[in-house]
Specification:
182 residues; mainly beta; 15-stranded antiparallel beta sheet; 2 helices
């Protein structure tokens, strides 16, 4: 139903100039599944930071109207500190009713500040901004690496907790080299 609302809002004449911020690509209907090719959404967070989200395909089965299946996901977000974060994932799903985005497989997160993460799973509560991964997480820090079997991100990224077998390797020389060059 939500997918149908997006289609109506973007393809039928707009009412009073109201349109969703995004693009819908080609639409394919096969059996009970509606698939959009190359959907894109962009906008601004509540505090005015831009974001964009795109997928190769987004599919919805009319028998499961609250679930959107996503493939080849790419997102870009501006952070509070003016850095940017880019995320890619081969597949995921979005629960429209619960507003939960679940990403699976080889998830890659790269920050313009030099941090990078690889995850096997990420469950994002889009209402609260909290992220949980119950599967192994690997982080590349500016001066080392961190591995954990669980990660919790709360308070919109203000607090990040790693647990269940955390190991960290630090290279203090990289920190000292960076300080020498400033």
């Amino acid at each position: 139903m939500a997918l149908l609302a997006v289609i109506v809002a973007n393809y039928l004449p707009s009412l009073d100039g109201i349109r969703l911020p995004g693009e819908l690509g080609k639409l394919v209907i096969k059996g009970t599944k509606i698939t959009m090719q190359q959907p894109k959404i962009s906008g601004y967070t509540g505090d005015g930071r831009p974001y964009s989200f795109a997928a190769n395909t987004a599919a919805q089965d009319i028998n499961k109207p609250d679930l959107l299946e996503l493939n080849q996901i790419h997102a870009r977000m501006d952070m509070v500190d003016k850095s940017t974060v880019e995320l890619t994932a081969p597949r995921g799903s979005y629960d429209l009713k619960g507003e939960i985005l679940t990403l699976n497989d080889d998830i890659v997160v790269v920050s313009s500040t030099g941090y990078a993460a690889r995850l096997l799973e990420a469950v994002v509560d889009t209402r609260s901004g909290n992220v949980v991964s119950e599967k192994p997480v690997h982080l590349k820090l500016l001066n080392g690496f961190l591995d954990a079997k669980r990660m919790d991100v709360v308070d919109n990224g203000e607090v990040i907790r790693f647990s269940n077998g955390v190991s960290m390797t630090l290279n203090p020389e990289k920190s000292a080299d960076k300080a020498d060059h400033q």
